[in-house]
Amino acid sequence: MSSDFQELVRRLSVREREVLGHLADGHTYAAIARRMRLSPHTVDTYVRRIRAKTGAHNRTDLLVLALSAAGFELPAARGPAGAVRWFPAAGAHPADDIPA
């Protein structure tokens, strides 16, 4: 599983990977901007690009991506019929994944 996440991270630019690392460390956009000497708007642009390239929908997805790419083994989300999904489908509710 982590190799799939590593492949997603390899698609990112060096600066996007740097932003992802700061997000994984729990930093806010403003803190990332200060550390990288960027504007918060530029950080937001990097985050939007990361989400577009990886399919991540929110900060939690980005954290899962960063940790998994770093080698942490996390359980994959299971969709209907047991299909593995890396990130929740758009508009999906967490209860949708609970077997009946």
Automatic annotation (TrEMBL):
Lineage: Bacteria, Bacillati, Actinomycetota, Actinomycetes, Kitasatosporales
Lineage top rank: taxon: Bacteria
Protein name per its UniProtKB record: Helix-turn-helix transcriptional regulator
InterPro entries the UniProt entry points to: Sig_transdc_resp-reg_C-effctor, Tscrpt_reg_LuxR_C, WH-like_DNA-bd_sf
UniProt keyword list: DNA-binding, Transcription, Transcription regulation
Residue ranges of domain HTH luxR-type in the record: 5-70
Signal peptide: none
Record bears the keyword Transcription regulation: yes
Keyword Transcription in record: yes
Organism: Streptantibioticus parmotrematis
